[in-house]
Amino acid sequence: MGTLSDHLGPHVVVTSGVLVAGASSVVMAFHTDTPSILALQAINGLAQACVWSGLVKIMSAWFDARNRGVVMG
After folding, report:
1. Does 5 score more than 80 pLDDT?
2. From CA 60, how far away is CA 65, in angstroms rounded?
3. What are the two backbone dihedrals, phi and then psi, of residue 36, each rounded to the nearest 5 degrees?
4. Which of 13, 39, 44, 53 is deepest in the core (most CB within 10 A)?
5. CB-based contact 48:14 (threshold 8 Å)
6. What is the per-residue pLDDT for 30?
7. What is the CA radius of gyration of the chain?
8. Over 2-24, what HEC string results?
């Protein structure tokens, strides 16, 4: 997902990932069958993976190298 963040820009990827993860969580609340919940959880996990790579890129631009560990921690 880092390549996608490099290609489209981290702000677009983070925003899209947060929206998709939130939507899949809301839709998951209305399903009771296991296959649907597993599929929605997989979509949620992929969306969260998009968010993480974009956030790392955004945070590295905002903070210098010696403070990144503290900020990300």
Report:
1. no
2. 7
3. -65, -45
4. 13
5. no
6. 94
7. 15
8. HHHHHHHCHHHHHHHHHHHHHHH
Q: Which residues contact 68 (CB under 8 A, 6 or more apart)?
A: 59, 60
- Which of 7, 12, 14 is closest to 56 using CA atoms? 14
Structure tokens at 33: 């069958």
Question: How is residue 9 annotated by DSSP?
Answer: -
What CA–CA distance (Å, rounded) separates 20 from 60?
A: 24
- Structure-block tokens of residue 40: 């929605």
Model's pTM, two decimal places? 0.77
**How many angstroms from the chain centroid is the CA of residue 1?**
9
Q: Is 52 helix (H, G, I), strand (E, B) or coil?
A: helix
